[in-house]
């Protein structure tokens, strides 16, 4: 039986990315030195029943360091690298009911990678680290009642 092309891995219109906690995960290739180096392999966003959250997936344990300044929250992940330059693409969150306007991963060489999120209103994040499905995750949870998304 021939291997399925990556573009054909999900039915048309189905999300083919990472959703923490679901049994089906996409195949994520890692660099050769992944056994000794932490690589960030995915950044995502989810609306939750109590607000919203950003998440980061990695191949090794993470020690997140949170800092919040007016209009921005940053979660630094020391010693990690981006598994692909594609993971540095920003998430545009303006059209979602969340205090977040955008989020991106910024690499700083051997110092690590930072998740930088722009806020459109004051928010108090909670940062936690978990291991599930052979991956390590950092969750940045934001509780909020109601945020009106930007007009389309």
Summarize the structure.
The chain has 152 residues and is mainly β.
Characterise the protein shown here.
- The protein is mainly beta and 152 residues long.
- The protein has strands spanning 38-48, 51-58, 65-69, 72-77, 80-82, 91-92, 100-107, 113-119, 125-132, 135-143.
- Strands 5-1-2-10-9 form a 5-stranded mixed beta sheet, with no helix packed on it. Strands 3-4-8-7-6 form a 5-stranded antiparallel beta sheet, with no helix packed on it.
- It is globular, with a radius of gyration of 16 Å.
Primary descriptors:
152 residues; mainly beta; five-stranded mixed β-sheet; five-stranded antiparallel β-sheet
Outline the secondary-structure elements:
Blueprint: E1 38-48, E2 51-58, E3 65-69, E4 72-77, E5 80-82, E6 91-92, E7 100-107, E8 113-119, E9 125-132, E10 135-143
Parallel strand pairs: 1-5
Antiparallel strand pairs: 1-2, 2-10, 3-4, 4-8, 6-7, 7-8, 9-10
């Amino acid at each position: 039986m021939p291997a399925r092309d990556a573009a054909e891995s999900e039915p048309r219109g189905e999300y083919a990315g990472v959703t923490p906690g679901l049994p089906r995960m996409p195949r994520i290739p890692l660099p050769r030195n992944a056994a000794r180096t932490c690589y960030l392999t995915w950044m995502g966003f989810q609306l939750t029943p109590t607000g919203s959250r950003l998440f980061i997936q990695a191949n090794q344990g993470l020690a997140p360091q949170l800092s919040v300044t007016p209009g921005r929250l940053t979660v630094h992940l020391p010693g990690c690298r981006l598994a692909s330059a594609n993971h540095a693409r920003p998430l545009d969150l303006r059209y979602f009911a969340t205090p977040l306007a955008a989020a991106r991963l910024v690499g700083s060489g051997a110092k690590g990678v930072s998740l930088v999120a722009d806020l459109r209103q004051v928010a108090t994040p909670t940062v936690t680290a978990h291991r599930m499905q052979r991956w390590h995750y950092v969750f940045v949870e934001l509780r909020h009642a109601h945020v009106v998304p930007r007009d389309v």
